[in-house]
Design brief:
Keywords: Methyltransferase, Transferase. By secondary structure, the protein is α+β, with helices and mostly antiparallel strands. It has three helices and five strands. The chain is about 30% helix and about 20% strand.
Length: about 140
């Protein structure tokens, strides 16, 4: 895509700090470095978000995640965890509209990275949850 920063990085029009590359995937350091080793994994094919993936592309991209995660862990043995984050669409905090997966090493509870999951279990009955699951399930092809 013409004005996509990640396509430009992949095409070497913009410099990056490469972590891994093969025929399907390019992984490089996020310049924000939320924590040391924060890596982005992108498909070389331009897709805006997860909703544009087909099974072949998904298999290619997501098969590389464990390999790159293990490399981060070996490079930084002091990490205590790793967040894998994929934001899709603006409301879900996607800011670059070329699909990418964040691998964020975690060093401590105080490493300036937070995620909050609200617990709304009390707002749903078993019947309501079953109806939601059925509604989604009917759409899976």
């Amino acid at each position: 895509m013409e004005n996509c920063i990640f396509c430009k990085i992949n095409n070497r029009e913009i410099p990056s700090y490469k972590v891994y590359e093969d025929e399907q995937v390019y992984a490089f350091l996020d310049i924000s470095q939320v924590t040391p080793g924060h890596t982005l994994v992108i498909p070389k094919t331009h897709v805006t978000d997860i909703f544009e993936y087909d099974e072949t592309l998904a298999a290619a991209v997501f098969a590389r995640i464990p390999k790159i995660a293990r490399a981060i862990e070996k490079a930084f043995p002091e990490i205590e965890g790793l967040n894998i984050i994929n934001n899709n669409k603006e409301l879900a905090y996607q800011s670059v509209f070329h699909s990418h997966v964040h691998l964020i090493p975690r060093y401590s509870k105080d490493d300036d990275f937070k995620i909050h999951f609200g617990n709304h279990a009390e707002n749903y009955t078993g019947e309501e949850l079953a109806a939601i699951a059925e509604k989604i399930g009917k759409q899976v092809n």
